[in-house]
Write a structure and sequence with these properties.
Length: 235
């Protein structure tokens, strides 16, 4: 497991919990607005954390933290993800998984084994704009949404854990029609968050902007027709 980032304490990444966040290196997407460029590209400028050092820290902070968020990158690319989570849960932590939904079999296995306690799945865009938003604009092949839709169906039909879908909303990539299409796709979901794009030094590509708060509020209102629990995040 390639752990390229560690946030010792976060109040934002795991709803309702004081948590640590582990950033797993590598991703099968190249979303141009991604703000974790070095982690996604597995930059040689980053020195991986030794797992034993990570677990020593988690052991030490058991009285401070209640959860661990496993994010990335894309954690489900790693076959040893279940083993990592088992070790974390042995310390008494709740585990939240962040995923892009491209490995539904791993997601299903983690749910059935009761290894995750919360899941946040990114929905990049409406189906007809997924290809460009996930960073495959130059590819001639049709973008296959089968795995992502399977993950959506897994989460919306299970009753084991709370979950959320979320979309980072970018002015150049998303409009009201796109958000309406997404909300229809995930209709009836537990929760849907529209996250405002934020410029950062670590963004994969420059030149993107956020919508105004007023515009985002109007998008959220439209989405509530299909997902009543739609809210804004990151304003």
């Amino acid at each position: 497991m390639l752990i390229l980032g560690l946030n010792k304490t976060t109040l934002l990444d795991y709803p309702g919990h004081v948590a640590a966040a582990l950033f797993i290196g590598g991703c099968n997407f190249r979303c141009p607005y991604c703000h974790n460029r070095d982690i996604v590209l597995q930059s040689k400028s980053l020195t991986p954390f030794a797992e034993e050092d990570v677990f020593a820290l988690l052991h030490k902070r058991r009285k401070i933290l209640s959860g661990v968020c496993i994010t990335g990158g894309e954690p489900t690319l790693y076959t040893d993800l279940p083993d990592l989570i088992k070790r974390i849960k042995e310390l008494g932590y709740l585990v939240k998984l962040d995923t892009n939904g491209t490995n539904p079999q791993m997601l299903q296995n983690l749910l059935q084994a009761r290894l995750i306690d919360y899941c946040a799945m990114d929905i990049k865009n409406a189906p007809d704009k997924y290809k460009i938003t996930a960073g495959f604009e130059e590819s001639r092949a049709k973008f296959d949404l089968t795995a992502i839709d399977e993950s959506v169906q897994i989460l919306t039909h299970q009753l084991l854990i709370p979950y959320e879908f979320r979309t980072t909303v970018v002015k150049e990539l998303h409009d009201e029609t796109d958000l309406a299409a997404i909300s229809r796709w995930i209709a009836g979901a537990d929760a849907y968050f529209l996250q405002s794009y934020t410029e950062s030094a670590g963004v994969l590509c420059d030149g993107f902007h956020a919508h105004s708060e007023e515009t985002l509020q109007s998008y959220a209102a439209a989405c509530r027709q299909f997902v009543p629990n739609t809210a804004l995040r990151g304003l």
